[in-house]
Amino acid sequence: MINPSIEKLLLAQLNKMSSEQQQQVLDFAQFLAKRKPVVMPGKALRSLAGTISHEDAKIMLEASEEGWGQADLKAWCNE
Asked: Looking at residues 64-77, what average pLDDT do you find?
């Protein structure tokens, strides 16, 4: 079922796009709909525990905290 709020926002964005861009959105939506989620049991995940060094984990945490909620829209657009 479509979330009415999302549908409204999505339609507003689609109305601003060219036919080619709208087709890209449709293609991506169809790709997502066909894709089956990858499920990994918790037992398998436990084997990954401790595989990231403390230093690397700290760098990743700092990077996520610095950039949280920020997006470079120009990097996502062809403008």
From this structure: 68
